[in-house]
Amino acid sequence: MFDLLKKLAEARGVSGNEDEVRQLIIEVVTPLVDEVTVDRMGSVIAYKKGTRSNKKVMLCAHMDEVGFIITRIDDNGMLKFATVGSIDPRILPSKKVRIGDKAIPGVLGIKAIHLQEPAERERAVKVDQMYIDIGAKNKEEAEKLVKPGDYAVFDSECIYFGDNKVKSKALDDRVGCLTLIEVLKDRYPFDLYACFTVQEEVGLRGAKVAGYSIQPDMALVVEGTTCSDVPGVDPHKYSTRMGEGPAISIADLASYSNKKLVSFLIQCAKNAKIPFQIKESISGGNDAGEIQRARGGTMTAVVSVPCRYIHSPSSVADLNDIDNTIKLVQEFLKGCEAL
Amino acid sequence: MRELVKKLTSIYGPAGNEELVSQAIREEIESYVDEIEVDVMGNLIAHKKGSGNGKRIMLAAHMDQIGFMVTHIDDKGFLRFSNLGGISVANSINRRVIFESGLAGVIGYETEIDSWKDITLSKMYIDIGVSSKEEAEKLVKIGDVAVYHPLFSESNGKYISGAMDDRAGCALLVQTIKNIGSTPNDLYFVFTVQEELGLRGARTAAYALEPDIGIAVDVTATGDTPKCRPMAVSLGKGPAIKIKDASVLAHPLVKELMISTAEKHNIPYQLEILEYGGTDSGAIHLSRGGVPSGVLSIPCRYIHSDSETIDASDLDNGVKLLTKILEEDINI
């Protein structure tokens, strides 16, 4: 499981530029399913025909990740950029990135602290104060390697560490992609559509059209979600706790989970003795928001793997949580047809 | 009408948890309509068939009210919460709330602050009178939702209660269903869910129903209190015909239909421009290829508090106006 997670998490796939992770997913799921299609937005839809019922169940994980887009090349060869998706600019200085199809290495730079005005030091760093340094001597040299519009992605190795933990970029939502791949190994009575969506981080865009075209009877979204169980945070702001199992969402800013699906997920977890938690915040949103509101409405629910330092090159998840998330989704699929 | 408003405002129904309101409305209207169903989102859809080749009209009033969702139970049994919809700090300090079970609580805040301005919802909690997490967990769980404690009052022709937004609109639709005589129009009365979370129920219902015309009925703000934000709407001057809000520009033909019907039948009305906020027509008018839509508003003071105040005559005139509009042979 770790090897596949590593491949998925290290594949590049900033929103709108998911080619590399898409190719990997297509390669991995093709032997497992009856049909793989890429829709017009670029989402991968893996279809596995049911053994008897014509009910449609949609599973959804987004394959895009947050990152950067190059906006301009300065005369000195430094690259100006904008963020794609929500990234806290304060985490950026000195981080490594890879730019464009050729994966040109770069470093996010900022003026040194001793050169900053006192007022600058007081303020949180902003994206427009930073640049990407690719070691080019001037604009002409830089233009041979990159061009405005190229995407940049965090350059971060996926490693196993500590007590069964994993550190990587893009755990949000390659942990979901991994879960979908694992459950595609089984066949179910109903038609299963596993959707690996694009552009979630810039506004749930892939899911909007996938939800419309698939028209499922129900949908389960598998996510990586915030986990703030760290020093200095009041426990009521933790959102989720690492190692305590998949987090089931009651509601967030994008969707209110269907109550039947939530009760069923809880029942599945209890029956199979899978640890779980109810997500203790309603901030954020994910693909369920658009799927729930597609056409005349769809039953949706969300299960998430807690991820610390989400949207950074060093997000951290617990492999037990990932394993239990896969188990919970498997249990859900065994019985959801009756709902 | 008073009893209907009192009944509907007293029912527990925060966004995402509209089942009890839906049941009560269903009991009120079932014998007056041809078909009634609940869709996958929870919208209650009542169909009253038209007698001729009239328009297919979707009416919408939202059943949900704003609420407080429990997100954490601390060791002493205090409940931390997030807002479901537009809950403000000022309207919530030391207010009483109630859960579906009937459990009551008080909203307190961390008093270790320098200024009132420092209070945010994350520094507030619900006190349900217990002294430990174990006790609290017997009564509530994460994800449960509380609402402002309903208390209906009447004062000089005004109705005062929490959840007037939008049970007043629901009451208006219920009474219209009961009043309406023969009409050429095919009417779909939709009591929507999750309006307060982003017009969600109306969006899916409008898609499924494909109406020719959409009319939402909801409360709107007023500009008739001391030193308030200017707005040309007052309590008691009639239902308001919306020109615009942040979610929709009323379709001119729907707006004209509403105005001309009011004038023809001498029903008082006012025109409304709401600079902020939105309502179900915001979702309905953008459904599929577009739906000409308008809004009939009930002027309301102190919106999103536990003391939302409307004028009884505005509600009565709203019923009259909507009934007449729906009985018209409409050429749009």
Nutshell version of this structure?
Chain A has 339 residues and is an alpha+beta fold. Chain A has helices at 2-10, 19-29, 118-122, 139-143, 171-183, 205-214, 259-271, 288-292, 319-335, and strands at 35-38, 44-48, 56-62, 67-73, 79-84, 96-99, 104-109, 131-133, 151-154, 159-161, 165-168, 191-197, 218-226, 247-248, 277-278, 299-307, 315-318.
Task: Note down, in words, how this protein is organized.
The complex is a heterodimer of chains A (339) and B (332). Chain A is an alpha+beta fold and 339 residues long. Chain A has 2 domains: 2-65 and 169-338, Aminopeptidase (3-Layer(aba) Sandwich); 67-154, Elongation Factor Tu (Ef-tu), domain 3 (Beta Barrel), CATH 2.40.30.40. Chain A has helices at 2-10, 19-29, 118-122, 139-143, 171-183, 205-214, 259-271, 288-292, 319-335; strands spanning 35-38, 44-48, 56-62, 67-73, 79-84, 96-99, 104-109, 131-133, 151-154, 159-161, 165-168, 191-197, 218-226, 247-248, 277-278, 299-307, 315-318. In chain A, the strands form 3 sheets. In chain A, strands 1-2-12-3-13-16-14-15 form an 8-stranded mixed sheet, sandwiched between helices. In chain A, strands 5-4-9-6-7-8 form a 6-stranded antiparallel sheet. In chain A, β10 (159-161) and β11 (165-168) form a beta hairpin. In chain A, α7 packs across α9 (319-335). The longest helix of chain A has 17 residues, at 319-335. The mean pLDDT of chain A is 96. Chain B has 332 residues and is of the alpha+beta class. Chain B has 2 domains: 2-65 and 162-327, Zn peptidases (Aminopeptidase, 3-Layer(aba) Sandwich); 67-148, Elongation Factor Tu (Ef-tu), domain 3 (Beta Barrel), CATH 2.40.30. In chain B, α1 crosses α4 and α4 packs across α8. Chain B is globular. The two termini of chain B are 32 Å apart. The chains are: A alpha+beta (339), B alpha+beta (332). The interface between A and B is medium-sized, with 21 and 26 residues.
